[in-house]
């Protein structure tokens, strides 16, 4: 009887030890399929970005600048926050597929070189509710600019890729712009 009790308590102690050991880990290797990820896909997204600075309801606002920004030909030091609509066609009235939310700042003294830090928040089809994060340099007066996609959420988990931006229309008087985006992204 006493011997059985002893064996039982050793067994219990052993299982308690192994349970606490398997509960405590900092890292381990897992397979992508254990997270429901099967095959990596490449998706091409195409949309138009509306950056409206001058309007009754602007979508981008300047929030800061340096004392010397107004004497800089590149607006060095100016910081803008945007919540810009993304549409399927160049017209603002065309179907909205998402929004570009983030910051752009003039970070070059020799050309119009913007630091772009933003999230594309999508609202269309299977991408509704998923986001992509962009961090890159945008030489806004050049032809096609390329910015890295550094990650994403929702269907865009594990994303990597790039976005190409090409100015569709730019009004020098108002500063308002429509920019065509082609985004190429790997995700599961
Ligand atoms: C630039 O802005 C500063 C205030 O930040 C002002 O004192 C200065 O007069 C402005 N310079 C020009 C050229 O507008
Ligand atoms: C996107 O998702 C939101 C919330 O789940 C929903 O209200 C909305 O109707 C969806 N939009 C589209 C275009 O599917
Ligand atoms: C994407 O961003 C929106 C806000 O724009 C947020 O509501 C949503 O939860 C994000 N999606 C995921 C999958 O995190």
Automatic annotation (TrEMBL):
Compartments where found: Secreted, Extracellular space, Apoplast
Record's GO cellular component terms: apoplast
Signal sequence range: 1-20
InterPro entries: Allene_oxi_cyc_Dirigent, Dirigent
Single Gene Ontology BP annotation: phenylpropanoid biosynthetic process
Key word Secreted present: yes
Keywords: Apoplast, Secreted, Signal
Function: Dirigent proteins impart stereoselectivity on the phenoxy radical-coupling reaction, yielding optically active lignans from two molecules of coniferyl alcohol in the biosynthesis of lignans, flavonolignans, and alkaloids and thus plays a central role in plant secondary metabolism.
Family that this chain belongs to: Belongs to the plant dirigent protein family.
Complexes and interactors: Homodimer.
Stated name of the protein: Dirigent protein
Annotated organism of origin: Acer yangbiense
């Amino acid at each position: 009887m006493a011997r059985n009790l002893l064996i039982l308590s050793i067994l219990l102690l052993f299982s308690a030890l192994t349970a606490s050991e398997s509960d405590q880990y900092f890292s381990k290797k897992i397979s992508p399929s254990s997270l429901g990820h099967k095959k990596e896909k490449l998706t091409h997204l195409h949309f138009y970005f509306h950056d409206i600075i001058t309007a009754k309801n602007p979508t981008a606002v300047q929030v800061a600048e340096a004392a010397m920004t107004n004497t800089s030909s590149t607006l060095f030091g100016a910081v803008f926050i945007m919540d810009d609509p993304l549409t399927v066609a160049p017209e603002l009235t065309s179907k909205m597929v998402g929004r570009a939310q983030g910051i752009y700042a003039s970070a070059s003294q020799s050309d119009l070189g913007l630091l772009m830090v933003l999230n594309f928040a999508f609202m269309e089809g299977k991408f509704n509710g998923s986001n992509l994060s962009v961090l890159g340099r945008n030489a806004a007066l050049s032809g096609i600019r390329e910015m890295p996609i550094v990650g994403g959420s929702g269907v865009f988990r594990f994303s990597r890729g790039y976005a190409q931006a090409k100015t569709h229309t730019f009004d020098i008087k108002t500063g308002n712009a429509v920019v065509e985006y082609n985004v190429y992204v790997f995700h599961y």
